[in-house]
Amino acid sequence: MVGFRTDEQPYEAHSPATLGNGWRDVGNLRHASTATGGVGLLRVSGAELGRKGVLRFSVTGEFFSSPDFPVLGASNTRTAGTFAIGYVPLDFLDVSLSYTASTNTNSRSSPTLIQALGDLTLGARATKQWLPGLWAGGDVRVMTFSGVGEGKVAFGFSPRAVATYDARTLDPRLPLRAHANLGLQVDGTGSMVDTGRLNASEQYALGINRYSRLTVGLGLEAPLPVATPFVEYNLASPLGVPGGRLVAPDGTTVSVGRVAPQTLGLGARVTALQNLTFTAAAEFGLTRQVGYGVQPVPPFNLVLGASFNVDPSLQATGGTRVVERVVREPAVSQTVAAAPQTSQVSGVVLDAKTRQPIPGVFVALVDSTLPPVASAPGDGRFLTYALPSGPVKLSVRKEGYLPLERELVLKAGETASVELELVAEVKPATLALAVTSKRKPVSATLAFLGGPESRRVAFSAADAASHSLQLPAGRYVVEVTAPGFLAQTRSVQFTDGSSQELAFELEPEPKQWQVKRANDKLELLQALRFAEGKAVLLPDSYPLLSQVVDLVVRTDIKRLRIEGHTDNQGDKTANLNLSKERARAVADYLIKAGLDPSRVESEGFGDSRPVAPNLTPKGRALNRRVDFFILER
């Protein structure tokens, strides 16, 4: 009997099969190559490059056959094939190389069969994620065109801006991704031959373009289980055409806008197989006019392709390898142990509060020697190594978030989909407290209201030098009360992990109170004083307003309205404005003293609400007043 001992090395499928996935499964997204390399749809390029280290191979075939193309009476058949390879060496960089060969047969060309062999395109794309769900960057392609003219080679250059937006960041129930391209394409094919000698059929077969083009590409895809349908639109508008008109094959002239190549592509990528993507699409020409020097657009074009994704670093360590082979006796029968049934976990890691993807999260299997995997930059998605079927426990770790563990039951041969939410770790703020009066410590009670956690703290004068407190970050209203002193309040904002000082200088209570609370009003036994004819408080009014703050805090008044009034002397409009300004000046003073702006409002009524006749100086003095009304308690 021959025995084998094997070591199983985990192999991660970069693009797991989508067969059996749910409608909103993040694993439905498949990054595949365009017809000329680099991630995207058919012709439209994408800005989200996928995971670093992935190698993509693609083969694309094209075919169309049509009568009366590109001119009436001409019968045209074209076949083309492209082999492309793309690689993502860095998180933000995608490089690609493609080779294209085509054969065109047209009854009006000479010869009727024209081949273009060895066209090469070298591309590089650099992008990054700017906002949740939005990737953008630049793309540069350098092209060579062989088989044009007498063994000559033409060169082309095409810079583009590329962008991708994933609508699933707005709503996971909306599996839509949009792509946009805008660029310039320059090629030298027009200089390779004497275009004046070529008819429209020959120019199309040889791929001749005499003008640079402004290119626009728009695409929309829907990553669904099994397949991803897509639609795309492409425009190549010629630039630098004299007078904006071209000569048509019948000798007339036609505007550039009528001959600018425009296509609409409809297709789908089949993603039901692991790592392998099949593409089937049809392109429809939206341009019917033909002008010399600009490539005509076929009425339709059929496209079939296949793309294979692989991560060489994982592939190099994947599979099963023979470690030891022991021959015990001549083989009579040979038994090979069946490979263990494995599963995978595909998922996304989100912030529990914002529901935004979290990149760089480490997902590991508890009590396993398998290395952890990290969620991808930008979209927060991850795919585990091959795991044993049955119950497993995932451990999720990210600096700044609380750790999470999730138990799953994996079915053999299937990929489980999960959505993991991490709760941000709250680092408390450290406060150094000081409550003094005339620079001497005072024992007091501090109430921290609002914020993530309300708290009351007793401050002792005995340990004032070392008194500190830790609170969760947030916005608080702090109210300070101490026997024999006027209460104070203040709105403060504490940030995560910050160290701040919070100091209060208290004023002793007055021997005789000049402010008292009566039902829904604060009554002032002494009038507030202002500069004559102005909304400027005089300093002898400040102690009264300190008593107002004390009553607001101690009696827990939620909202207070300040009303200003004048006598009837002078212009009514001027009196109304002065009453409003004085009420506002009092409100501003209270807010500066620590009251939250949401607790204070003001209004002025001029001389419209007298409390005494304006016939005597005493009556007019009573009418020049500021009232305090309690709106909510």
UniProtKB/TrEMBL annotation:
The keyword Membrane applies. Keywords: Cell outer membrane, Membrane. PROSITE patterns: OMPA_2 (PS51123). It comes from the Bacteria. Its main location: membrane. Pfam families: CarboxypepD_reg, OmpA. Residues 517-633 form the OmpA-like domain. It is found in: Cell outer membrane. SUPFAM superfamilies: Carboxypeptidase regulatory domain-like, OmpA-like, Starch-binding domain-like. PANTHER family: LIPOPROTEIN YIAD-RELATED, STATOR ELEMENT OF FLAGELLAR MOTOR COMPLEX. This is OmpA family protein. It comes from Archangium minus.
